[in-house]
Design goal:
By secondary structure, the chain is of the alpha/beta class. It has helices at about 10-20, 60-70, 80-85, 90-110, 145-165, 190-200, 220-230, 250-260, 275, 290-300, 305-320, and strands at about 1-5, 25-30, 50-55, 70-75, 115-120, 170-175, 180, 205-210, 215, 220, 240-245, 250, 270. The structure holds uridine-5'-diphosphate. The site of uridine-5'-diphosphate has 14 residues, from helix 6 and strand 8.
């Protein structure tokens, strides 16, 4: 199979590229390196089945050329990370909405199969735990910048499903829950790479708020397994699937876990949200996926435990 991965030089995209190459696919990457990095794909460059173009998906002729070459498009290119979203809201909205519009329009011209990466952020402030794919989405007010990310990805989902319904374009939506692993950068606020970096440097570990908020973290290898399964499955198009793990941990406990595993002397400090992000910032108190839909479809089961995830990130940061 020939697969185009937009955002293929990003953290998840580079791991997906690796997996597809390993099973004999041809991989085309399109990435503008805005949050991705050439280092992430350096080790793939010599593989004759791997090609990459450094360009934005907003460049329509270049994206068209790449879409035309492949059988499947995996659209991962997006503005990502809560810090980036709060700091650059215009870029977030434009990249997420316009980029997806272009990818879907071009894929539709040649009826290429599409897998759109969405996010657990779309569940917003919903209290209906665990989150199921058909549950209501609960967004905050439009003057709270964070929710522009959720809304922009929700629009992507609407558009993808509209293409499926109206034009019979085979589009599948994957909602990814807090994905972690080697090569993820802490630069855009992601908690685990940040905590590990702080702990290894024996610097204060910064817990935002009171640390009672919780998340379920998934290793990138488990997420990639889910994505590959959705690329292949004939019944996936037209549907939305959560991909995640249901092991829940509070951010305070996470800080303690990272400190213990790194044998760090770091102090754990609590930083008010308005200092960490901006005045009036709203966090999601909990985020827990129901993954039974993708499990029923293809037997999906996350295999990597939280301690193993943390060990892998610690190892990666200690050796790079
Ligand atoms: N967080 C934290 N310290 C950090 C970075 C993040 O306490 O240095 C918190 C953040 O406020 C959120 C959780 O960790 O409650 C997960 O944040 P992340 O940005 O990784 O992902 P999110 O779930 O918010 O998309």
């Amino acid at each position: 199979m020939k697969v185009l991965i937009t955002g293929g030089a990003g953290f998840i995209g580079s791991h997906l590229s690796e997996r597809l190459l390993d099973r004999g696919d041809e991989v085309y990457v399109l990435d503008d390196l805005s949050t991705g990095s050439i280092d992430n794909i350096e080790h793939l460059k010599d593989n004759p089945s791997f090609r990459y173009t450094i360009e934005t998906v907003m460049n329509e002729p270049v994206t068209a050329e790449n879409v035309d070459r492949v059988d499947v498009v995996v659209h991962l290119a997006a503005a990502v990370g809560v810090r980036l979203i709060v700091e650059s809201p215009v870029r977030t909205i434009e990249t997420n909405v316009h980029g997806t519009e272009i990818v879907l329009k071009l894929a539709d011209k040649k009826k290429k199969r599409v897998l759109l990466a969405s996010t657990s952020e779309v569940y917003g402030k919903s209290q209906a735990f665990p989150f199921t794919e058909d549950a209501d989405l609960v967004m905050g007010a439009t003057d709270k910048g964070r929710w522009s990310y959720a809304c922009s990805k929700a629009i992507d989902e609407f558009l993808g499903l509209a293409y499926y319904k109206e034009k019979r374009l085979p589009v599948t939506i994957a909602r990814l829950f807090n994905t972690v692993g080697p090569r993820q950068t802490g630069r855009y606020g992601m908690v685990i790479p940040n905590f590990v970096r702080q702990a290894l440097a024996n610097e204060p570990i910064t817990v935002y708020g009171d640390g009672s908020q919780s998340r379920c973290f998934t290793d990138v290898s488990d997420v990639v397994g889910g994505l590959v399964g959705l690329i292949d499955h004939p019944e996936a198009p037209g549907q939305v699937f959560n991909i995640g793990s249901d092991f829940e941990i509070s951010i305070r406990e996470l800080a303690e876990r990272v400190k213990a595993l790194t044998k760090s002397t770091s102090e754990i400090v609590f930083v008010p949200y308005e200092k960490a992000y901006e005045e009036g910032f709203e966090d999601m108190a909990r985020r827990v996926p129901d993954v039974s839909k993708i499990t029923r479809l293809m037997g999906y089961q996350p295999k990597v435990s939280l301690d193993e995830i943390l060990q892998r990130v610690i190892h990666h940061q200690s050796t790079s």
